[in-house]
């Protein structure tokens, strides 16, 4: 692949954790990588690491705060101004245990993990469709199994559970349903979608959890960020283009919980999300 026809990948939240490893591996695989995140200063070391890879294309940074629809819109406009094609969108950024409301009035974890990525994907879709074959990879979680459903009123209220895990589970169920519904709506476009569980990974995402809850995670055996990026990279680089709309764990398509297979709920979430970001 020459520099002129390199595939372009945009990844959210790649200054640390699973996203950082994913960005570097995508650059090694020949992609021009664009990292969208909250801080250029915190992302600069990864831009430098990519720059230092032999034969790599310089990575770019775009400001993005997923808790603000204004910021998401500005990010999409900044991408359009680059006049680059887009072959791969990795919706990776996420929070767990965050509290409060986003500026647009969504429960913080649901707003960042689902609503922000829903809007970003909508705004970038024309670029993905124009560059097809293309992919949208959304980092969900096995935690989607820990909810009994999305309460449409709760997602418009500040975080209520003590640990924020219930709200995290809702947001990850939303990631998974979004990816499945997006696949249906993209039929015939050659843009494929993938959602995944990366494993339980030793990253900064657990920093907002109460200190008493963290040892419980360690008991489950944490993966390194390198191990945690494997399923994202499988979906981005190796899963067949025809395998669209599926949920992966350990680099294989896996059945989600029953709610994650509920087509009615996926459609309802989509319709509400469209109305929310209008
Ligand atoms: N770690 C696990 O065990 C695990 C398990 C299942 C699923 N996941 C999922 O994996 C993905 C990556 O998580 P990780 O474990 O690598 O966590 P991490 O190390 O905490 O990284 C999260 C990334 O998201 C960014 N981010 C947070 N809030 C943001 C916002 N408002 N706008 C834009 N970016 C924001 C962070 O940027 P800042 O530095 O600016 O905060 C950071 O780059 C998440 O979607 C997570 O839900 C993780």
Between the first and last Cα atoms, what is the distance in angstroms? 39 Å
Shape: globular
Largest beta-sheet details: 8 strands, mixed
What order do the helices and strands follow?
A: EHEHEHEHEHEHHHEEH
CATH architecture descriptor = 3-Layer(aba) Sandwich
Name the CATH superfamily assignment.
Answer: NAD(P)-binding Rossmann-like Domain
Which segments are poorly predicted (pLDDT under 50) over 5 or more consecutive residues? none
Residue-averaged pLDDT, rounded?
A: 95
- Radius of gyration from the alpha-carbon trace, in angstroms: 17 Å
CATH topology: Rossmann fold
Work out the helicity level.
40-55%
Report the bound ligands by name, code or SMILES. Answer: NADP nicotinamide-adenine-dinucleotide phosphate
Describe what this molecule looks like in 3D.
- The protein has 278 residues and is an alpha/beta fold.
- The protein has one domain (8-277): Rossmann fold (3-Layer(aba) Sandwich).
- It has nine helices and eight strands.
- The protein has helices at residues 17-28, 40-51, 69-82, 108-131, 165-185, 214-219, 225-228, 230-238, 263-277; strands spanning 8-12, 32-37, 60-63, 88-91, 134-139, 191-197, 246-249, 252-253.
- The chain has an eight-stranded mixed beta sheet, sandwiched between helices.
- α4 (108-131) links the parallel β4 and β5 (134-139).
- α3 (69-82) packs parallel to α4.
- The radius of gyration is 17 Å and the shape is globular.
- The model has no long low-confidence stretch (mean pLDDT 95).
- Residues 12-13, 15-19, 37-39, 42, 64-67, 92-95, 112, 139, 141, 197-198, 200-201, 203-205 line the site of NADP nicotinamide-adenine-dinucleotide phosphate.
């Amino acid at each position: 692949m020459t520099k002129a026809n390199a595939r372009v990948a945009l990844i959210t939240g790649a200054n640390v954790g699973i996203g950082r490893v994913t960005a570097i591996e995508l650059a090694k695989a020949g992609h021009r990588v664009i990292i969208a995140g909250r801080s250029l200063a915190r992302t600069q070391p990864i831009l430098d690491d990519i720059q230092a890879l032999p034969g790599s294309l310089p990575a770019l940074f775009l400001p993005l705060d997923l808790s603000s629809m204004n910021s998401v819109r500005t990010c999409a406009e900044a991408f359009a101004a680059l006049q680059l094609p887009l072959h791969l969108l990795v919706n990776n950024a996420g929070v767990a245990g965050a509290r409060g409301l986003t500026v647009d009035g969504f429960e913080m974890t649901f707003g960042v993990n689902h609503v922000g990525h829903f809007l970003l994907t909508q705004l970038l879709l024309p670029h993905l469709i124009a560059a097809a074959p293309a992919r949208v990879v959304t980092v969900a979680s096995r935690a989607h199994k820990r909810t009994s459903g999305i309460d449409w009123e709760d997602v418009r209220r500040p975080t209520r559970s003590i640990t924020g895990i219930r709200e995290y589970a809702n947001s990850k169920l939303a990631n998974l349903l979004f990816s499945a519904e997006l696949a249906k709506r993209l039929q015939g476009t050659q843009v494929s979608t993938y959602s995944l569980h990366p494993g339980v990974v030793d990253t900064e995402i657990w920093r907002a959890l109460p200190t008493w809850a963290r040892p419980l995670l360690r008991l489950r055996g944490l993966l390194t960020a390198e191990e945690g990026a494997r399923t994202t990279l499988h979906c981005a680089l190796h899963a067949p283009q025809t395998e669209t709309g599926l949920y992966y764990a350990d680099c294989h398509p896996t059945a989600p919980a029953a709610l994650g297979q509920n087509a009615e709920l996926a459609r309802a979430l989509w319709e509400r999300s469209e109305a929310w970001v209008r």
